[in-house]
Amino acid sequence: MEALILFAMVLGLLFIGLPVGIALGLSSILFITFFSHDSLSSVAISLFGAGQHYTLLAIPFFILASAFMSTGGVAKRLINFAIASVGHFRGGLAMASVLACMMFAALSGSSPATVVAIGTIAIAGMRQVGYSKEFASGIIANAGTLGILIPPSIVMVVYAASTNVSVGRMFLAGVIPGLLAGGMLMLAIYVVARVKGLPAEPWKGFGAIVRGGKEAGWGLFLIVIIMGGIYGGVFTPTEAAVVAAVYSMLIALFVYRDMGPLKETPWVLESDGAVARVGFNGSVYGVSFFLVWMIMSFFATADSETVTAGERALWGLGIGLGIAFFYIYKRGHDLHESMLRCLLAGLPVWRRNLVAVARAFFPALFGSETRKVMLEGTKTTVMLMFIIANALLFAHTLSSERIPQVVTEWMLGVGFNWFTFLIAVNILLLIGGQFMEPSGLLVIVAPVVFPIAMELGVDPIHLGIIMVVNMEIGMITPPIGLNLFVTSGITGMSLARVVKAAMPFVAVLFVFLILVTYVPALSTWLPYSIMGPELVNP
Known about the structure:
The longest helix has 33 residues. Helix content is 77%, strand content 0%. It is an all-alpha fold. The mean pLDDT is 86.
């Protein structure tokens, strides 16, 4: 009876138009006040605990990293790299848009951010080569959902915090399903392209792929820093989020120069001669390799007592110099110039750029564009954390009334097994995902279904991926599908047209959901091969 009263209060408050966070928090407070034996002091303790939850601290920093990576330049570079890789297939530009969404998902952890960053550029590009606006919008709306499945994922962090499972295992568990989902969408696009005769981009050779990879490399290296740092034992997922935020800011401001005082200031000017370009580019390759080597070798040997930083530096310096000298020798020989001449000619380019970075360093960190990005990230963080805090209060109310235990006993009593239980979970989340924001819904549902899943022998990591995939589909199903609203906003299409455009590809995600639900190895093989099984405290 108490459970019915509590859920009726939530639904009633939502029905009269209150925001989700307020509806969850207010219904919990009213229930504790009038129907529960719990003390009102538990409200303050629960809300305070949400702000002190170590795992949840990763969310604001991943949001900030996403904000800096969404400045436009990174998305454009990812799309160019994706087009060079798969654009030559039938429907290649649409497939490249999916691939770009997959790569950006690994940088942002956010589905709406992926839709905005990639969709703003990709939809216009697809329209220019003859794709219909509906087709392009439907692809981006669906591919953007990969933002919460491919790690790092904010929704995975929320699930891990709600159930006390490993964030690291959840991140690894999303790798194979994320690649499979992207592959299924691209296969569906290819089939449609063959039927409708959609255009293909000309094959530009492997050189275009290499050039695209070089341009997008510093952005994509963020994936290596996050995943390598976590699984190399260098830092926790929360610390990885902090590193990602700082790295993203530095790359956006000083390497890609998409914002700040150095915006539109190229590293190499047209006035720089060919010899100076060769010397500068060769030394850049050497320095870049050295930096990447030091980071990667640090991740690989963090627990080693025999490999010192000096040894790693010597190896990196030697190989980096070899790469630089080889490039300068090769290019300089074509120009009939010596290596020394090329190196000396490149020094003024280095000096000009280092002086520019030094002068712009503090103005860039505290400039108007940086403050704007941080303000937008803060707004998103406050909104999301408000929902999560109130959802945690609601989950506390459920636990204090033993509602999860009652539901568990009932489901076991009526003969539910793991197979039928997962069907029920999917139906519940598919319905709930139509009306609630993913993180808030997860915090509510996870504490209820988690004990039942453990009792029925469902793997906790497998359950987490199932819930995340359901949240994916919820992002593109009306009436509250966030991706639908974002796609409508960037295309100017009505919500009804976006829904109609997205539905054919939603069918692909439903097939994917069935695969993920009943093939646990897709979710569990990689994390358990690397980190071992998840141990759940009873």
